[in-house]
Inverse folding.
């Protein structure tokens, strides 16, 4: 079935800033943003052929049960698209192969929505995508990136999916004497966001534009949406019911100096669960992890990952090669003084918090590249109520994402080596790996109702796994 491209009307998104984020936070000089065209966020020295797209898939999620009682897979891309697939319809790797390449055929999306409007490429990069459920039971699709935060009703997507699927089935039905050309099929109303949020105009830009929201998190108990931004204001806090900005915290603009010293990659709201306060966790380019009281935006504790690993080196294992030792010092210390760590992703399982990221030797590596023998990464595990470091591992690749898989009862991470790694959920011991098609992995989504997991990143190919075995592929063409 052919993929249907739909337009999404919204405010005209501001294009991503092309000035120097890391240097700005140090000296207010222009900076180079880690966009796909500039080896976005992290790159890889693994070269793969026959990639179907120049787009990078940064965020993804499984939908709630939808049309025909299915859970769809939804992803956002570096060219401003939100794409929807039915993973169960993907050709099996064991039953359907490309005649020429001997590889599993890939399934195109059912529909693709361009957030910036129209059906062509634009400068709107989307970094994160999540489903949330608000009071009253409605499910919302939250996408974030260069345009800030754009929020849709999932029912609007369901309507477009229903038309696309029903028209596709009509084309295959023997009762139909004639199938319409897909381009002539009447589409539903243009999918419109119900609201959108933008961060403040930023002093990091030449003309005072807003910068991107890299990650969002929703606290269902009080209806608060958090957004981790690429500016000095740090984390934004919106009341979703009133669409009002409540405030900002965690940024370099804090007068008391208690915020992050650089821009944020991730935020995660932790609802009250036997703990004394409601946590909001932030992580960013400065290598720090912040714990905040979500009610009053007050700092509880700021933890430096490198310092914690150095102080607990007896709890840290090492999974690197000799080529990655340039930013490792003696065996008694995981990192040397020339190393720079950043926090990429966090996820939880009960009282356990997994934190992953990357590191580079700033003495030997350009700021515009994160793919060299001087880069590496880390995966760490923390006891959430006590905020205590319990174990960690130095990895040979920088890690971009970590999620917990219920069906596997482990954490799964993806980085810059074209593979995903599996980690014990209570010890963070590396328990295996599986090779994947994307040279660099930026998103891993585990279906909480099955053993299905989808891995995406650079190149436009997504791998579908059942348990730890790759069984099919999804494709995003240019």
């Amino acid at each position: 079935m052919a993929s249907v491209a739909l337009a999404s009307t919204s405010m005209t998104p501001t294009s991503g800033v092309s000035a120097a984020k890391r240097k700005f936070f140090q000296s207010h000089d222009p900076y180079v943003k880690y966009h796909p065209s500039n080896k976005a966020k992290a790159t890889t020295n693994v070269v793969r052929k026959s990639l179907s797209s120049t787009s990078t898939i940064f965020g993804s999620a499984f939908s709630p049960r939808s049309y025909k009682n299915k859970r769809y897979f939804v992803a956002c891309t570096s060219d401003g698209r939100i794409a929807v697939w039915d993973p169960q319809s993907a050709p099996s790797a064991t039953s359907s192969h490309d005649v020429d390449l001997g590889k599993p055929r890939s399934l195109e999306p059912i529909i693709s929505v361009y957030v910036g409007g129209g059906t062509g490429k634009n400068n709107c990069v989307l970094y994160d995508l999540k489903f949330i459920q608000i009071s009253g039971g409605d499910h919302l699709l939250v996408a974030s990136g260069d345009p800030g935060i754009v929020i849709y009703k999932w029912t609007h997507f369901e309507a477009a999916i229903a038309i696309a699927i029903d028209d596709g089935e009509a084309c295959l039905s023997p009762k139909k004497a004639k199938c319409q050309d897909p381009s002539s099929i009447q589409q539903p109303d243009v999918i419109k966001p119900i609201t959108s949020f933008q961060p403040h105009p930023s002093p990091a830009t030449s003309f005072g534009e807003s910068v991107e929201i890299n990650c969002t998190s929703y606290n269902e108990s009080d209806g608060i949406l958090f957004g981790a931004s690429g500016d000095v204001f740090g984390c934004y806090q919106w009341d979703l019911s009133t669409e009002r900005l409540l405030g900002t915290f965690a940024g370099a603009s804090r007068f008391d100096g208690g915020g992050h010293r650089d821009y944020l990659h991730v935020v995660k709201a932790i609802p009250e669960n036997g703990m004394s306060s409601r946590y909001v966790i932030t992580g960013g380019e400065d290598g720090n992890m912040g714990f905040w009281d979500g009610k009053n935006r007050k700092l509880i504790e700021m933890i430096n990952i490198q310092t914690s690993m150095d102080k607990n080196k007896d709890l840290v294992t090492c999974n690197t090669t000799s080529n990655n030792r340039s930013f490792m010092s003696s065996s008694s210390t995981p990192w040397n003084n020339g190393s720079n760590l950043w926090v990429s992703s966090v996820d939880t399982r009960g009282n356990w918090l997994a934190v992953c990221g990357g590191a580079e030797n700033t003495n030997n590596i350009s700021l515009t590249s994160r793919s060299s023998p001087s880069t590496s990464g880390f995966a760490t595990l923390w006891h959430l109520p006590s905020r205590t470091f319990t174990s960690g591992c130095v990895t040979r690749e920088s890690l971009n994402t970590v999620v917990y898989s219920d069906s596997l009862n482990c954490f799964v991470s993806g980085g810059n080596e074209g593979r995903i790694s599996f980690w014990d959920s209570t010890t963070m011991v590396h328990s295996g790996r599986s090779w994947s098609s994307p040279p660099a992995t930026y998103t891993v989504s585990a279906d909480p109702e099955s053993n299905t997991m989808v891995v995406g990143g650079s190149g436009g190919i997504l791998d579908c796994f059942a348990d730890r075995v790759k069984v099919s592929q999804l494709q995003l063409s240019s």
